[in-house]
Input
Amino acid sequence: MERRALMLAMGGFVGAWGGASVLGAPAAAAAGGVVVDVTAHGAKGDGVTDDTAAFQSALAAVKAVPGAATLLVPPGTYPVGASLVLAADTTVSAYGARIVRTKDSGALLKNFDSVTPVYGYAGAGNIAVLGGTWDMRGAQFSKQSDAVGFAHCEGVLVKDCTFVDTPSAHAVELNAVRNAAVVNCVFDGHHPGDGASLTTKEAVQITCATEGNLPAPAYDATGCEDILITGCTLRAGTTTGPFGALCGDHWGAKGVFHRRIRVIGNTVQKSGAFGIRAADWQDSVIADNTVTDVALHGIYLNSPQGNGISGITISGNTVRGVDGSGGISASVAAGGARHRDITVSDNTVESVKGEAGIYVAQTDGLTVIRNTVTATLRLTPTGNCQGIHVQSSPQAVVAQNSLTDIQGDGIGIDSGSIGTLVADNTVLATTGPGINTGVNGATLRGNRITGATGYAVRVGGNAVGTFVQATTVGAVTGGASGAAIGVMAGSSGTWLVGNDLTARGSSTPAITDNGTGTTPVQNTI
Output
């Protein structure tokens, strides 16, 4: 990502370093202060000698420095068999180094112990980890462990790091953290542990301080704020599988949210479950990411504890190759709170096998605009599959989208999405209706539909007061068993105004009306 774009993405919240240090050269002195070389404390970096004691000695020296200090880890391979605890105002510069875990000893780096309670964001902060390959050897040392973990603190930067073979947990744990950035990191392989074949664990977990979630008391349910993840790559390792998501949370707490999360310009090459999971987020952005080869959802909005998320913009992403559920999805757990103010715009969704290219449920203030959805496939021959599916989201706006080669309905509006506006969309080649709506007060205006099956527009589900205007209909397959516009039994008060149905095909009826009180006006048939 170019400098200006990254500065805009950061929004000025990257803790003590600011934009210059985040984007600057990898010199150890970039963070300022005293430089402590781990080799001066006895580290060999030969890949054979146990360098644990040398790292502990060097970190003790760093901690003794008044003010900021840098631990320099020169190029080499360093076996380490203990968790290294970082003090406040510490930078670890490890460009060219490989740090290898040699025991089931927990995280390689962390800023907390498991005993001392720290509340809010008062723990050791202003910490940077720059460069290095952090090899957790998860296949050999498989006890669940993060690679690096931060809790109850403010000001964290993890940049230019590669994380290898993390066992059954996370590469980077952000637990009750404010002002953090994970920049240009590679998450290379995850060992699910416990014989699991599918992992849902995130490479970067953005979570809150709750008991059992991380051994970092106090368990005061503090959430995360002002987090940036950018320029990162998630991929499967050479000897193990991928993480279950680039970022997110599978834990959470009732009523606790993470605010101002930005996930911008990342690449997910392969994921065992989700590309990006926004769990309990508010006022956040997911933009310009490329997500391919995922097992469940490309981009997934939800809450493990049933909270309603809000203020989410999903824009400019490419999601390609989903085999299991949906491209971009927002769902609500049974009994969970409704979402609000979600915008899905300018995304490209291709080759999704599952429920929908874009699916949003139980959301107030939903906008789905200018997206391109291509080639959706059913999971089963009789399964549901739609290009865009909006459910229980009143007054939604679905506009200016382009949908092609959809195995199912092009756009489906149902189950309580009253008053939805569906406008200026282009729908080509569907095996179901081009637009299928069954809600009260929907307005369908200025849509262009060609190659639909059965109906270009289907008004059903006991809908009342549907308004269909200025629709241009091309060829409809299905002949006399369908129509350019079909008004189903139980529907009432449907208006059909100024629609151009002339290109529907000679064997296909223009309008099939089994409703009551249907009013056709100035349609061209």
Observations:
- The CA atoms of residues 15 and 155 lie 4 Å apart.
- Residues 1-233 form a domain with the Pectate Lyase C-like fold (CATH 2.160.20.10).
